[in-house]
């Protein structure tokens, strides 16, 4: 937390800036597969006992059958893991994801009508004794010949806390 002294108002809170991790520079697609794949540019390193907050903005396209399945993976045994999601599907339907209070081995699903959508994720990780990476993975929920795509311009922002 940063405080700035302002002559008119005294101490003013100024939040620390998030660091733009990486921006996806080319579409990444999955066709006819429910196997999760990592989007390399949405990977953030995390050290032993490090705590980070991550904000993902994921632009996607999916067919009505394939949908979008996603998973945020942290190194084994984090001491704290929280994830909240908000998705907007191609038809404009808004869905709030359940807050995950522990990392699970189950991917979350955004059910969509065919077309483009947006997924917003807020994730907090307090890492344990295993150094590694926090990764964003995706696939189709149901195997389909229409590609499920994470679009160029998707990004992750993060900061330590």
Structure, briefly:
This protein is mainly beta and 161 residues long. It has strands at residues 2-6, 10-14, 19-23, 28-30, 37-38, 44-46, 51-62, 68-73, 80-88, 94-96, 108-110, 115-126, 132-139, 148-150, 155-160.
Overview of this structure, please?
The protein is an all-beta fold. The mean pLDDT is 85. The strands form three sheets. Strands 3, 4, 7, 9, 10, 12, 14 and 15 form an eight-stranded antiparallel β-sheet that branches. Strands 5, 6, 8, 11 and 13 form a five-stranded antiparallel β-sheet that branches. Strands 1-2 form a two-stranded antiparallel ribbon. It has strands at residues 2-6, 10-14, 19-23, 28-30, 37-38, 44-46, 51-62, 68-73, 80-88, 94-96, 108-110, 115-126, 132-139, 148-150, 155-160. The protein is 0% helix and 53% strand. The relative contact order is 0.36. The termini are close together.
Rough shape?
Answer: globular
Distance between the termini: 9 Å
> How much strand content do the residues show?
over 45%
Helical proportion, percent range:
under 10%
Average per-residue pLDDT, rounded, comes to 85
H/I helix tally: 0
Rg over CA atoms: 17 Å
Question: Helix-strand pattern, N to C?
Answer: EEEEEEEEEEEEEEE
Any low-confidence stretches, pLDDT <50, length ≥5?
A: none
Total number of beta strands: 15
Structural class of the secondary elements? mainly beta
Largest sheet: 8 strands, antiparallel
Q: What are the key terms here?
A:
single chain; 161 residues; five-stranded antiparallel β-sheet
SSE map:
Blueprint: E1 2-6, E2 10-14, E3 19-23, E4 28-30, E5 37-38, E6 44-46, E7 51-62, E8 68-73, E9 80-88, E10 94-96, E11 108-110, E12 115-126, E13 132-139, E14 148-150, E15 155-160
Antiparallel strand pairs: 1-2, 3-15, 4-14, 5-13, 6-13, 7-12, 7-14, 7-15, 8-11, 8-13, 9-10, 9-12
């Amino acid at each position: 937390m940063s405080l700035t002294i302002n002559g008119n108002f005294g101490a003013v809170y100024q939040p620390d800036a998030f660091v733009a991790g990486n921006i996806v520079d080319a579409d990444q697609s999955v066709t006819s597969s429910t196997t999760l794949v990592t989007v390399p540019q949405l990977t953030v390193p995390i050290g032993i006992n490090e705590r980070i907050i991550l904000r993902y903005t994921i632009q996607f396209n999916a067919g009505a059958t394939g949908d979008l399945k996603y998973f945020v993976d942290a190194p084994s045994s984090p001491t704290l893991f929280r994830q909240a999601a908000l998705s907007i599907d191609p038809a404009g339907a808004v869905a709030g994801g359940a807050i995950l209070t522990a990392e699970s081995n189950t991917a979350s699903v955004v059910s969509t009508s065919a077309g483009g959508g947006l997924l917003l994720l807020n994730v907090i990780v307090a890492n344990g004794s295993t150094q590694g990476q926090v990764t964003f993975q995706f696939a189709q929920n149901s195997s389909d010949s229409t590609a499920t795509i994470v679009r160029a311009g998707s990004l992750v922002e993060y900061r330590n806390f």
